[in-house]
Amino acid sequence: MTRRTRQILASALVPLALLLALLAWGASSPPGSSPDEDYHMGSIWCANGIIEDRCEPGVDASERSVPTEVAIAAKCFAFMPEQSASCPLFEGTMKSTPRGNWFDNGYPPVFYGVMSVFVTPDLSVSIVMMRVFNAALYVGVLTALFFLLPVRMRSFLVWGAVLTAVPLGMFLIPSVNPSSWAILQATGLWLAVWGFFEQAGGRKIGLGVFAVLLMVIGAGARSDSAAYGVLAVLVAIVLGFRKDRRFLLELLLPLALVVIAAALFLTSGQSGVLTATTSGQKDSVFSLIFMNLKQLPQLWIGALGLWGLGWLDTQMPPLVWVTTVTVLAGVAFWGLRTGDLRKWLSAIALAGAIIFVPMYILVREGIIVGSGVQPRYVFPLMIIFAGVILLGLHRTDLGLGRVQLLVVAVGLTVANSLALHTNMRRYITGVDGRGINLNRGIEWWWNAPITPMVMWVMGSAAFALLLATLLWRVWPASRDVEAATSPAFPA
Question: What range defines the domain where residue 76 resides?
């Protein structure tokens, strides 16, 4: 098969497989299953103000009345992992709730406004449409970016996304949590701006448009994403810096992006990270720094499966996070073998942010790791760092040998499949359910003809197809690497 044929087939299979894998994750849990989803659903239903039977005045000025099933969607299973998602229905009734963005404006309005387009009288239909939209948005934007970017940057987009996706990314991207858009921004914004500096003509314009879109997406979903977006822009400026007048003109785009981030930040309260609830411990500053530094890696590994999904009550098996951490750490360590000053400055800045952001909040609030700050708050920074640390490895296979590539592909495939099964089991029967057969003893599932086992197999197979296609695409190049590095043994 010719190289051109491989490119065409891979270009079609990878987005399709990724979309199917994300849709399976979107169907793996009920309405209300993502962190603080009752707050986010109430905010979506009330995004357009007072509307009869959707968002009505509450018992006082700080509350709104929304459909009862929206207000209490997670109350019957949140923090109770043994409890399935089989909850009583309250169709046609309204309930007053303080949980929403109408009082303190803690979140920017863009995400909620867009999601409100999909609100219908049927909660399940509404949530499914929102999850499908966010999954399709992620796949569509990254696919467009892939073809707009210079060839040498494309592998950083793919590897950065794949290495960090399981399990938190796969769970949050097809969800109604604003972190879905924060993940998309982190994956693509720095590359869109960097590519804008490198490309010309139509592709340059396209990358500029997508850079603006990604900043609006991220900063319009979470306030902390506005700050992370500015950091991503600064990284791109460092990587694309040139000493000429044209570059000075091109800096108008980053300037516009910073203005957009600042404007959206000012439409909301403090960032989600900065408004973490605290337990108010009274330890000294030095004691807090010492205790938190020792435990800080829990937050990084937490995004790779050490912490639970959902309301932090869906614990992943050790095989998931051991595998994802090993793969990401191994490939990142491989990335340390090469680089220039621009790469190291960017990587150091990102590593510093990954440490400083959670440490600042923990110490300021007088708490230790495990309270207030969650892995999803620093997850976007990890995604950018995963891409930046690979700079200098210009080959599509990063110069990895075939055995290394197989370990990465098989490891992530197994981790994704096991994580998906665990997440589905938690809601279908509760974690007290046993066995691989998800069709046995069903207590909750969608009103759809697709059974849980079919959904799990489909999602697992789609993710496997995604990695298999990427592996197949770089397989000939990896053979050249092995041929060039294999030692010669005497006869």
Answer: 37-99
Residue 98 and residue 2: Cα distance in Å, rounded? Answer: 60
Q: How is residue 295 written in tokens?
A: 């435990």
**How many angstroms separate the CA atoms of 435 and 156, rounded?**
38
Chain-centroid distance of CA 240 in Å reads: 25
- Quote the crossing angle between the two packed helices 179-198 and 252-265, to the nearest 10°: 160
Sequence-ordered list of residues with C-beta below 8 angstroms from that of 365, at least 6 positions apart, any chain: 276, 278, 280, 372
How crowded is residue 244: how many other Cβ atoms within 10 Å of its Cβ?
A: 8
Q: Please tell me the pTM assigned to this model.
A: 0.94
Gap between the Cα atoms of 466 and 473, Å rounded: 11
Rounded to 10°, the helix 252-265/223-240 angle is: 170
3-state secondary structure 266-327: CCCCCCCCCCCCCCCCCCCHHHHHHHHHHHCHHHHHHHHHHCCECCCCECCCHHHHHHHHHH
Residues 6+ apart with CB under 8 A from 472: 6, 10
What's the pLDDT at 106?
87
Helices (H), 149-200: 151-164, 170-172, 179-198
Total number of domains constituting the chain: 2
Q: Is residue 200 part of a domain?
A: no
pLDDT of residue 372: 83
pLDDT tens for 187-219 read: 999 999 999 999 999 999 999 999 999 999 999
Q: Which residues pair with 65 in a beta bridge?
A: 56, 96
Percent of the chain clearing pLDDT 70 (strictly above):
94
Q: pLDDT (tens digit, 9 = 90+) per residue, 106-159?
A: 899 999 999 999 999 999 999 999 999 999 999 999 999 999 999 999 999 999
Please tell me whether residues 53 and 156 are part of one structural domain: no
Contacts of 407 (CB under 8 A, 6+ apart): 327, 330
Pair (424, 439) in one structural domain: yes
Distance from chain centroid for Cα 262:
22
- Number of helical (H) and strand (E) elements in the chain, helices listed first: 19, 3
The burial of 78, by beta-carbon neighbours within 10 Å (0-12 exposed, 13-18 middle, 19 or more buried), is given as buried
Inter-CA distances, 111 with 27, 128, 134, 481, Å: 21, 16, 10, 45
Q: Clarify whether residues 143 and 52 are in a common domain.
A: no
Average of pLDDT values for 29-58?
Answer: 96
In a domain, 214, yes or no: no
Confidence of residue 277 (pLDDT cuts 50, 70, 90): very low
Distance between CA atoms of residues 439 and 317, nearest Å: 21
What pLDDT is attached to residue 475? Answer: 83
Residues 296 and 379 in one domain: yes
Mean of pLDDT over the chain: 92
Please write the tens of the pLDDT for every residue from 149-184: 999 999 999 999 999 999 999 999 999 999 999 999
